[in-house]
Write the structure tokens for this entry.
Amino acid sequence: MPRKLAITLGQSSSAGIKADNEDFYGAYIPDDAQLENKGITIAIADGMSGSDGGKEASQLSVKQFLTDYYSTPESWTVKHAVNRIMSALNSMLFSQGQKRYSSSKGLVTTFSAMVLKSQTAHLFHIGDSRIYRLRDNDFVQLTTDHRIWISNDREYLSRALGIDSHLEIDYYRTPIQIGDIYFLSTDGIHDFMSDADIAKLLTTHKNNPQQASDIILGVALKNKSDDNVTCQVVRIDNIAKANKTEYYEKLTRLPFPPDLKAGNVIDGFKIIRELNATSRSQVYLAEDTFYDEMKDEVREVVIKTPSINFEDDPSYIDLFLHEEWVAKRLDSPHLIKVCAQKRPRNFLYTIVQYIHGQTLKQWISENPKASITQVRGSIDQIARGLRCMHRMEMIHQDLKPDNIIIDKNNTLVIIDFGSTKVAGLAEIQSVIEHNNIVGTANYSAPEYFRGEPGTNRSDIYSLGVIAYEMFTGKLPYGEISPERAAKKKFIYTSIREYNPQVPEWIDLAVRKAVHPNPDKRYSLLSEFVADLSKPNSELIRSNKVEPFIERNPTAFWKTLAIVEFILLILAIYSLYI
């Protein structure tokens, strides 16, 4: 059986000698898919002393964190999801504190949280509550107190949730091991007990985390703690680790469909004709025989089936399923949509919308030198689709004209998510090893061929190549062989050499988008689209101060060759004078 992430949890809290308990804590252990894709959450908070709404702030921060985290997209990394949640929460606490209490100390709390996902603990912290780890008798504090001491008996929080409009929250990640014990506490506990005493009690009662937390709380009170006392004890019982046999059985629970021909029916879909076939898959136009016009359902669909050649290849099957997983989580008129499967599926295949139209590759072939307006409009549409993916922390990785369809309304739609990199999924340990996925060499960013991971800028590179090809019918660096790409010298040829009608400022924008060094490309799609719409004076100015060889290497070498030829003629001529 596959091994799932599992913990045993103990939690205790008391107002102590105070009249009211301004500490708050909580945890959530989801089931099934969310346990794998999002993980387990644990959080603790301590309303700041002297804060008018400290109790409310601590409760809000823990409750909202535990609730909102599981509403964020599964494609997001833990860090991105939590930072988005906590930034929004901090803004709300700060603004409400100012509004209701006319003070920056209105709704303020410390906050420490853990997200246990797959085989990693993600820690988030602000303030002076703490997170410790006990491993093999080694007890260490993993967080840093955000305190400033004025004197031996006077100190204040230098950072807290809700105290300022700007949030600076510590983030740390560490691998987890079976048997690890994580300890979360407020200062009413750890200010009145030594680390050694806490570690001893955790070790003594490691088989019963609830008993450990109760006893530690009692000891802190016995030591005359003058604050609220709260702690959580988390023992790691299992870490996520899939069994290869079980995982493969999960992948292959649906058989590959047989070769399909016009007239064949598969799960109620009647094959009309084959649209495309490669060594890796077949794509068919099909009609839904259960089509109901009254329900405004889709009648014609596209069915993509896996190639029988890969029936025993778990890596291939995993990627085939991955494409549908990605498409289901995207929503944009410029991204292909998966059709809802309302009937039981008896075979492995994917159903997507059918788009009447042609590929951008076909369009470029028919229009080798598109107008500025056509290119600008097309790039803007493709960028809108990519922005939707990037917001979900997805990178397409195989953007090319063949993977873009223009429908009858001139809407451009990106298809094929088989190579898409999903940041959130990359955090999950898997038994399936995929080789470094690189798309078509002519459109793939150079960093892929150096073995570096792709980023948003890699998609921007591909988009820049498409813009170049639309303007010229050619590629900025010529044809690229996958086998030689790692050693290729990427020397840019100006668009104006093939299409003088294109202004220099547009050529500069495309040149920046396809720069071989990702650090010198655009960081945002919107910047590239903007620079295609109007001249970027800063980009033009920076280009003028670059050496001629870097501004236009092709022209430089041509000029040098002409000069050398002239000098050679003069030298020969001088011999005969």
User: Anything to note?
Assistant: The longest helix spans residues 78-101. The chain has three domains: 6-241, 245-353, 357-545.
